[in-house]
Structure prediction request, 370 residues.
Amino acid sequence: AARAGLRADGDGALMTRPLLSLTGVAKSYGEAAAVEDLDLDLEPGSFSALLGPSGCGKSTTLQMIAGLVVPDAGRIELDGTDLAAVPTEHRPISLVFQKPLLFPHLSVAQNIGFGLRMRGTARPEIDDRVADMMQRVQLHGLGARRPQQLSGGQEQRVALARALVLDPILLLLDEPFSQLDAALRSEMRTLVRDLHDSTGVTTMFVTHDQAEAVEIADRVVLMLAGAVEADDSPERLYQRPPTLATARFLGTGNELRGCVCGSEDGAGTGRVFTIAGTAHIEVTPGTSTGPSVLVIRPEALALAPIGPRDVSVTIVAVRFAGSHLVVTGRTEDDQDLEVHVPVGTRVDAGERVGVRFPPDRCTIFGRTPA
Ligand code: ADP
Ligand code: MG
Prediction:
């Protein structure tokens, strides 16, 4: 049988067809666009995070995929089928919401088996599948309880079990753990990741929390104001944010205004980033010259004795942060930057030191002259 998700391209080679594909999808409420011209592909079996600030259109996107909201424009395909004419209940998609939305008058087992019962699945099969799901989400022994006898974490386990017992080909999770405390959230993330890895169900996890997105997903789709701003692996988004807005949302750290120009002696790459005309940070060849912003994470920087071409700063604060010290330095043109240094480093406010910028950790963005 043809495996879902595979197709031959023009030359007959097998390529992976996206399991889910959104093209030019848009939705407005009145005058206000919630989602604008959204393109998004999910590979079969992938685990992606849809990340973005509150109000950027994440839930609207999920609701359109699930068929709860009708797009104004664009096309949504699931496994090669246009979903426009497929009603919600016939889409092999399960959704888990922030609130578990369990039936209060049904037991845990009945809540989990509810969808199968609606489908007319035979009783013994329902019992088997519910028992199996309860094991997988670590609810064994709690089948007879009512939802009000469960903790918040257990309720979300029921919601997960109820979603997965239907064998969806796509699992959508809309900020499912944002009401749980931090320790429980982390435990639930591990559970969702394990469930994905054991079932292989294509999963999209919606969150506004960048730390959660990069921890759970293999791929992060960053949405800002209704459109995709960036789409890459968590590592690459952190190390090489494609836009300044991406860097800012991920909290990539230091942002320094300066200028890219040719280095006087033409050594190295021939292009340097200068701050207040003094420092000379080598940048990749081909970087456009002119007013620019350099973005670099505090853990990528190091303190060093001041060399003639280094960035020199005056230390204005040193703060203990558990695993490291956060040193705040001020450049000659009054820009602050943070450097993480090992605990025990001898460094004091008022000192002048050099800061080393590893060229491969710097990302440069052009900026319009002030
Ligand atoms: P997110 O899930 O990223 O927080 P939403 O998709 O819920 O964002 O909302 C995107 C935008 O659309 C917001 O400005 C929100 O106020 C608006 N919106 C969402 N749902 C509705 C609705 N049913 N009626 C009117 N406006 C809505
Ligand atoms: Mg939402």
